[in-house]
Specification:
- The protein is mostly helical.
- The chain has one domain.
- It contains five helices and no strands.
- The longest helix is centred in the last third of the chain and has 33 residues.
């Protein structure tokens, strides 16, 4: 962080670069694994669940290692994972399914997103804790 308390240029650059890479990866996965209209958006679900796991694991690990560079945490967390996983993609998919009267699908999708996302975050927290303990970073 800069002396004024505002993030320094490295953090801004890391968030921008991470955001570019995360959004491009999401876009590429969407092209590689397109969802069929009216079906559960599996690609978006998998992206968001995996991102929840990774962000929870990294955050837990970083809590145990507070000296990890701020620019790195900002670039990977809000930058890369923030653009890789987006709530707007969930809302867009639900809206499209709702508008085309696929009500059981959007309800199942929202339920799965919530349950699997929370489960992945819990597993990520546990994984981050184990990794921090193994590295000797935890007190």
């Amino acid at each position: 962080m800069a002396a004024s308390g505002a993030p320094g240029w490295r953090a801004w650059l890391a968030v921008a670069a991470g955001g570019l890479l995360g959004s491009e990866l999401r876009y590429g996965l969407g092209l590689a694994f397109p969802d069929n209209m009216g079906s559960l958006p599996w690609t978006t679900l998998c992206i968001n669940v995996s991102g929840s796991f990774i962000l929870a694991a990294l955050t837990t690990f970083w809590i145990a290692r507070p000296r990890t560079a701020f620019w790195l945490r900002a670039g990977l967390g809000p930058g890369f994972l923030g653009s890789f996983t987006t709530f707007s993609a969930v809302v867009f998919s639900v809206d499209q399914l709702w508008r085309t009267n696929h009500h059981p699908v959007w309800i199942a999708y929202l339920g799965l997103s919530l349950l699997l996302g929370l489960g992945a975050a819990a597993a990520g927290w546990r994984t981050g804790k184990v990794l921090a303990d193994r590295s000797g970073a935890a007190a």
